[in-house]
Design brief:
The structure is a single chain. By secondary structure, the protein is an alpha/beta fold. Helices cover 28% and strands 17% of the residues. The protein has 9 helices and 16 strands. An 8-stranded mixed β-sheet has the order 12-11-8-2-3-14-15-16. Strands 1-13 form a two-stranded parallel ribbon. The chain has a two-stranded antiparallel ribbon with strand order 4-5. Helix 2 runs parallel beside helix 6. It starts with a helix and ends in an 18-residue tail after the last helix.
Length: 424
């Protein structure tokens, strides 16, 4: 068979993309492997093998081959909705691996901003100060930005829960019959606004909630598929980080999954501009926000603690309750959304990635910078929920409102956790 030049170029390009995906996956896996044992599931025994999902965010500088792991997380649990009001910003609502990795990424950015604010001469390989001419209402007024020559990638050891993994979920069932829906809407007799992950397999392209198991406590945490789909519009930045860092360079370029976890048509339906995100595919908003879809690529590498890594000598597959948090500034092990070994309301049990500490760091940077506009807006109240309703977040809230109305309909906010913030 004779291949034309364009076909050869296409094949070469495909090999380059696959090699890059493998390299990024290896960067996350190697970073995780370097962690002490206390951050990992227990070693396999004849009785059982513990598994846990892993996700990590990697930065690659243009024209350089050396990726840098900026954050990683493991975990697969979330906070029941009847406990959200008690969280007080101190307990994570969601510690699925993808969400832990994103929160750890944001904590890393906040730490970089703090160091830049502390010492004007300091230099960060990831974050930079923005020039005055870059600041505008249309492009955002944040004092910092991620460097222009960086691309961000995420590796996940499992397909994100929710829509991107529905085909895999169906395939794995001994009995492929969908779990029954708990209850139709009493007035419309239609499906409820948020289905659990395993309810009604026939419904695809819809917003789902965690956890998938019918016997687990109810939550309003949306699936990782839904949260990642939204991040294609809001960027990877959390609300607090978006006060300091411009979203323009904070979008994922690539999501990398093991080949066994990447179902191409499911990923296109879930994330792609021709799938459920089509209604916002051409959208651009004020503040530097836009729909910027990532590409989903496959890697041959598997995580040592994935479900598929269970040795034949272990009789039972069990889930690990440890959530690991890692970035260049922080290493933590969490249980039930708090530091391992700490009681529920112990002030020393707050994770570096919990809302209270991340908002506190944000406020600390704002005070150090002395930004009048921002400080004036937040001086009227010390409650986070009041801040989120202010003009400071008008652009970001508009993005979320448009996307959840037009593409991710049925999205219900997981409100109820309000708390006061002090710098630090």
């Amino acid at each position: 068979m004779i291949l034309c030049h364009s076909s050869l170029q296409s094949i070469k390009g495909q090999h380059v993309m696959e090699a890059e995906a493998d390299y990024i996956a290896t960067t996350v896996l190697d970073t995780y492997n370097s962690l002490p044992a206390k951050y990992k599931p227990v070693k396999a025994t004849e009785d059982f093998f513990q598994w846990v999902p892993l996700s990590g965010i990697v930065a690659v500088k243009k024209n350089e081959q050396k990726p840098r792991c900026l954050s990683l997380g493991t975990g697969m649990k979330c906070l029941p909705m009847n406990q959200v009001a008690e969280a007080n910003g101190s307990i994570l609502h969601d510690w699925h691996a993808e969400i832990v990795a994103i929160r750890a990424f944001n904590q890393f950015l906040l730490q970089e901003c703090l160091e830049l604010a502390t010492s004007p001469t300091s230099i960060s390989p990831i974050v930079r100060r923005r020039e005055v001419h870059e600041l505008s209402e249309s492009e955002g007024l944040q004092p910092f930005s991620i460097h222009d020559d960086l691309r961000l990638h995420m590796y996940s050891s499992e397909a994100p829960c929710g829509d991107a993994s529905m085909e895999l979920l169906m395939e794995a069932q001994v009995d492929a019959t969908p779990w029954p829906i708990e209850q139709l809407h009493p007035a419309t007799k239609k499906l409820p606004a948020l289905l659990r992950g395993r309810e009604s397999f026939a419904e695809l392209g819809i917003v789902r909630r965690k956890p998938a198991r019918a016997d687990s406590p109810q939550t309003l945490s949306k699936s990782c598929s839904d949260k990642l789909a939204l991040k294609q519009c809001t960027s990877l930045l959390s609300a607090c980080t978006s006060l300091l860092v411009n979203p323009g360079n904070a979008y994922l370029d690539t999501l990398i999954l093991p080949r066994s976890q990447r179902v191409e048509h499911a990923c296109e339906r879930c994330f792609g501009p021709k799938g459920r995100m089509k209604p916002v595919a051409t959208h651009q908003w004020n503040g530097g926000y836009a729909f910027r879809p990532f590409t989903v690529r496959a890697t041959e590498h598997e995580f040592a603690f994935s479900r598929r890594s269970k040795p034949e000598s272990s009789r039972e597959l069990r889930t690990s309750n440890i959530a690991a948090v890692c970035n260049p500034h922080v290493q933590e092990a969490l249980i039930l959304g708090r530091l391992q070994g700490r009681q529920k309301f112990d002030p020393k049990g707050l994770s570096a990635i919990c809302s209270k500490r991340m908002w506190g760091m944000t406020l600390q940077v704002l005070v150090m910078l002395g930004t009048p506009r921002l400080l004036h807006s937040i001086s009227e109240s010390s409650h986070v929920q009041e801040w989120k309703k202010s003009e400071l977040f008008a652009d970001r809230q508009r993005v979320k409102a448009d996307v959840t109305a037009e593409a991710l309909s049925g999205w219900i906010r997981n409100d109820g956790d309000d708390f006061e913030v002090e710098p630090g």
